Amino acid sequence: MKRKKKWLLFVPAVFWIAFFLFASVPVRAEGLVRIDANKKYKGMNASFAKGYVPAIKKNTMQLVIPFLADAAVEQERLLIGVAFEQVENSPFYFKNYQKQVTPSKNGVYLYKCKIRLRRDRVNGQYPLHLFVLAKTAEGTIREEFTIYVDISDGKAAFPSDEELMEETSSDLQQEAQSLSSDTKEEIIRQPKIMIAQNDLQGKDVSAGSSVFWTLTARNCSSSQAMENMKVTMLSENKDISFEKNSWYFERIEAGKEIALSQNIIVGKKALAESVPIQMQFEYEGKTGTAYTASETVYLSVSQTQQAKLVNFAMPESFYESDADSVAFQVQNTGLAVIYNARVRLEGKGLFASEVFLGNIEAGQSLDGEMQIYAGTLNMNEQGEITDVDAEKYGDVLGRVVFSYESEQGEVIEQEQTFSTAIKKPEIVELKIEEEEDQETNQWWITVIVMTFLVLLFIICWLYLRMRHYRCCAQSRQ
User: Fold this and answer.
1) How far apart are CA 106 and CA 157, in angstroms?
2) Quick one: 386 exposed, middle or buried, by C-beta within 10 A (0-12, 13-18, 19+)?
């Protein structure tokens, strides 16, 4: 009877060995995300295709799973976690190992977590169910993967009677220690990390420039260190380029700081605005618990104002006391608003009021008109004659000044020079001349009278001639 029982105990062990040899290690659902089974990554003893086995040390299993996304993922983030199966003698402590994973430079979403194992774990293979949530243009997609973990450093699957007696005596003590350990972990506070210094705080970075930027992050905990820290910098602004997007720190002691430095380039067409930049922190506490945190810093981008005055054409000359108007246009050729745009004229003997155009949006233009009054060269700016004997007329060299303000209130001026002249007024005599129309009327009246007389003469001549013929005819009879 005893031999039969021993043979029956041997059958399940053979079943588990056969399952391990012939079952495929990664099981994945066909879809958006898949496990990279062909490459070995940091923290792995081999690729999945060559039989990757998670490392186990001091009752902790280090799990490293590389995922690849076959389509675009929103914000380039995958939410990955572990769903435990309620199996008998499960070696795992059931906890939340869910975290957000971003891709590395080679596009791999490397999921890492440390899973605590029970001290009284039983050797064998156990399933771990991994779930992946990804947001795409079609919506949120969930995929599940199952891997099998081989536990070989625990107790035998079927202990002998003597081992059962020994384990029974220590089960209560070990369970109490485990519960005590769990209780201590529950009250351990999460160490916080925050941005302590931003050397560009309160400063503007001009569009089209490159600048060295340093951020300092501090471990705010007074007692806990942070380990396995990864810092990722994210921005949705396509006009800002970063030299580095991520940093890695093996350990940050309590109260210590880390420097996140790099060169950044701001594109020429970057809008003048305060750009939010998100800093994501992924790290582990002293018990191996994974944490995530995020901070937002702002980068102030400024645009250099660019505007010009066009089509301002001065008359070649003015007569004293004359007034003339000059039309012009102001064009904002930059990507930032210009404020309090003005145009004024400066020239000896010429007087004009300043034209105020106000604010002009980027890419827009405004038309203006200036009324110019001409005095004499011996007048001052108030229009008063300063020297009676001085020259009153002649050439004038002056300038037109176009000015506007930046967002910071800085005044920018542009000028155009011109030349004109002030002339002495001309006296025009009014001469009254006989109108040609009267002469014209006299000759055509004369023509009509002459024509009438000629016709009258012809009629009389014809009448007399006919009368003559009649008289001749009667005398012959």
Assistant:
1) 42
2) exposed
Write down the residue that tokens 């004038």 correspond to.
396
- Distance (Å, rounded) from C-alpha 474 to C-alpha 463? 17
pLDDT, position 288: 84
pLDDT tens, position by position, 416-448? 999 999 998 877 665 656 555 555 556 778 888
Cα separation, 163 vs 5, whole angstroms: 17
CB atoms < 10 A from the CB of 124, how many? 22
Q: What is the pTM of this model?
A: 0.42
Three-state SS for 444? Answer: helix
Q: What is the pLDDT of residues 22-44, one digit of tens each?
A: 333 333 335 688 888 888 998 89
Single-letter code of the amino acid located at 182:
D
Going from the C-alpha of 318 to that of each of 279, 314, 393, 423, 425, the distances in angstroms are 67, 10, 10, 6, 9
Phi, psi of 53 (to 5 degrees): -125, 120
| CA-based nearest residue to 148, from 57, 23, 35 | 23
Task: State the pLDDT at residue 318.
Answer: 92
367, two tokens: 């038309």
Q: Which two tokens stand for residue 54?
A: 């998670």
> Using an 8 Å Cβ cutoff, are 258 and 252 in contact?
yes
